[in-house]
Amino acid sequence: MRSIKGKKVTWIDLFKPTEDDFVSLKKVHKFHPVILDEILHPSTRTHIEHYDGYLFLAYHFPEYDPIAKTSRRSELDILVTKNSIITIHYDNLEQVNQLFDLLSQDQKERERILNTDTLLATYYAFEKIISFSLRQLRHIEEQVGSVGEEIFAGKEERLLRSISEIKRNILDYRLIVHAQEKFFHELQEIGKKFWGEKSRVYLSDLINDNQPVHRNLENYFQTIESLESTNAQLLDSQTNRTIKRFTVMAFLFTLPLYFAFYSEFEPFKSIIAPTAPRFWLSFVLIHASVVTLWFVLRRKKVI
Question: pTM score, two decimals?
């Protein structure tokens, strides 16, 4: 447990809280035991609860897992009273650490954010999270851009896996953030009752700042689907071209068998002069026909 105390607001941050931490909270705040028990376990959804004198916010956001190569769900729980904000998380959240360090080291920022009420602290906590989400999206943008640059470089088979990984990442990301728009609209409505009309500007700003996350995500998804379709067409074309080449090659290499077969018939034997070595004459005739047909097909770009 760590805390920062301002003139009117105290911010308590709990990373991997223990039972002793919750016992300490119960001594100071009248949080319902059901709420404290819920914080001990991951929430199944993003949601807001308004109780007598405090808010309980459970917020999910995506973090990229470089090992699984996709976005995984991270959770930040926040208990907000009139004079304290308590953040609870089980992952070491960079965005929370940045804001906490800023308020610890910068007295002016600490006085500005923690010397009024919990509205500003809640606002800046979510601003950090939204900023982090946009930064995570830049990774997806870079991945999509990389596929766009390589799609006409003859790497269709290798790109199949890359495109599949990017699509899975986008789909997992979208599944995690799909409830965020509703969350911020609910926060605006509940926040006006909890903090008063002054909260409208701050909470409306969160709604506006969060919109690019969903808009950019949909753009990247549509782009990667288009790239996937283009890559599939190129791969089909390459496959058809390869099959055609092998078919022609198979045909060319079966010609000697046909010649050998028909050379055993008497009508064919009569064509060849009896004094000429039948083997060598047949050999020259067969290979001359194959080579001639090869050059004709090459010139017409059939193979």
Answer: 0.73
Pair of tokens at residue 303? 């193979």
| Cα 236–chain centre separation | 26
Tens-digit pLDDT profile for residues 276-301 = 555 555 656 666 766 776 676 666 66
Direct distance between the N- and C-terminal alpha carbons of the chain, in angstroms, rounded to an integer: 72
Q: What is the residue type of 80?
A: V
Written out in words, the top-level CATH class of the domain with range 2-236 is alpha beta
How far, in Å, CA of 4 to CA of 9, rounded?
9
Q: Which residue has the tokens 């007295």?
A: 107
SS3 207: helix
Residue 7 and residue 116: Cα distance in Å, rounded?
8
Distance CA 240, CA 247 (A): 10
Residue 61 contacts residue 76 (beta carbons within 8 Å): yes
